[in-house]
Amino acid sequence: MNTREVTSQYRLNQWTEIVRQCRSSGQTIAVWCEENNIKRTSYYYWLKKIRQAACETLPSLNENNTIVPVNISDLAVKIDPSDQESTSDIVIHIGAVKLEIRNTASAILIENVFKVLKNVR
């Protein structure tokens, strides 16, 4: 790692902490930035950089597909593979929500959807 990369990583870490402080303050970004003498344009620039760095650390869609265990009873879902209105391979009803999955969906996409659904009530 060269000096430029180290400096960039250091700044990214600093700004990650600044964004955390702002978010946990309960204040609007505008108010928090003004009280902390930070330009909003700088805040949003670094927020964008932080998000880009986070996206780069996500696993690639080309990685080996894995089977994700899902406890269906925890989600209280009704799986209806014979749904006549759909061209999807699997149709999952969760309350008023209808989730349709095709065989071409990636394992990572399905895993992330179920992670989100697990936390939604």
TrEMBL record:
Domain of life: Bacteria
Protein name listed in UniProt: IS66 family insertion sequence element accessory protein TnpB
Native source organism of the sequence: Defluviitalea saccharophila
